Amino acid sequence: MKKTVRDIDVKGRKVIVRVDFNVPMKEGVITDDVRMTAALPTINYLLENGAAVILMSHLGRPKGQPKPEFSLKPVAEHLKELVGCPVIFAASDLVVDDCVKKQAEDLKCGEIMVLENLRFRPEEEKNGEEFSKELASLADIYVNDAFGTAHRAHASTAGIAAFLPAVSGFLIEKELKFLGEAVDSPRRPFVAILGGSKVSDKIAVIENLLDKADTVIIGGGMAYTFLKANGCPIGASLCEEDRLELAKELQKKAQEKGVRFLLPVDSKLGDRFAEDCATAFADSETMPEGWMGLDIGPRTIDLYQKAVKDAGTVLWNGPMGVFEFKAFEDGTRAVAQALAESSAVTVVGGGDSAAAIKKFGLEDRISHVSTGGGASLEYLEGKVLPGVAALQDK
Ligand code: AMP
């Protein structure tokens, strides 16, 4: 267990917090501030408990160069509207310089200061020790609350923790609680649903979950590599020819471990990869040539919904089909709906499945939707996240 802000006295201290304010922007305007509101519980807790708060984040990919279009200034301005206290923006292309140090020194309890985009400095992504020290020199305590970058060993996510007492914020605490409990001490039966385009991206996740889950359900483009490995015709569907052996091995492992392994029994097909293609349905044993499976079919939806129904824990990562196209969103919608209606603990990995939950307006009916696509995937692979490992143990 990692220490959190609750385990440390912050009164009268300067606290530097790594947040994930990497918000989507269009022409300088923030189009979705959910990442900012997600950090508010930690920020408000620190302010209410007498700390002065210094926030740092990256925004986009300025590639180690100061680029005005990636400045965090609009984010700092928006933050002013979200919190009822003074917010100072430390406008420095160097992120930390003498002027910023002075601003940090003068910062009073109950005030917030926002640093410039961390990735204006090339040392950030290289986990440069000097930059870590510069950041640490601004404060007395370090808090990491940016789960989305916790799988990266950067100066602001890992390096800085060597120079200050380091604890987690509430967002990381929540991510670790839900992902951790789902994987390590799930209420059973534990059903893991994995989708998305490629088997190769999910091998490590499938392998790790075969040791933990009672049922593994496969959907999305990657299902066709498994079906082909089992001798089914897959037409023009996605297939990773070099993973056919592996697909067989994974199923054998599942059998040996007594894990139920479900593949689509039917698909919704398109005659090409396009929104306005002709569509048809086929069972997995009889997919016609030239067509591609772009979503799970109605019998599969029924099968997968039933598997979720009695679950104690459901973990979902990756869409069941090309849900970006209206004609192929039904499988993903049905799985999302099944999670929403389930009494199980439901955890959705970030990325596309989180986007799908949002698209279908079901966020409030899921126990936890992860804020980090890459980070949650690495966690599910059983990897140690550097941004978490660097924090103090309880
Ligand atoms: P990933 O990035 O691997 O998580 O995969 C997500 C993407 O997989 C989404 O953009 C989906 O449109 C795509 N996808 C899901 N099912 C299929 C499918 N049957 N064929 C092609 N692409 C798919």
Overall tally of domains:
2
How far apart are the first and last residues' alpha carbons, in Å? 6 Å
> Roughly what percent helix?
25-40%
Supply the number of helical segments: 14
Unreliable sequence segments: none
CATH topology of the largest domain: Rossmann fold
Strand content: 15-25%
**Which small compounds were modeled alongside the protein?**
adenosine monophosphate
Major sheet: order of its strands?
5-6-4-1-7-8
Class of secondary structure makeup: alpha/beta
Strand segment count: 17
Mean pLDDT: 96
- Overall CATH architecture of the largest domain: 3-Layer(aba) Sandwich
Classified by CATH, the class of the largest domain is Alpha Beta
Rg from C-alpha positions?
A: 23 Å
CATH superfamily of the largest domain: Phosphoglycerate kinase, N-terminal domain
Please describe the biggest sheet, giving its number of strands, its sense, and whether it closes into a barrel: 6 strands, parallel
Silhouette: elongated
Comma- or semicolon-separated keywords:
binds adenosine monophosphate, 17 strands, Rossmann fold, 35% helix, alpha/beta, six-stranded parallel sheet, 394 residues, single chain, 2 domains, 14 helices, elongated
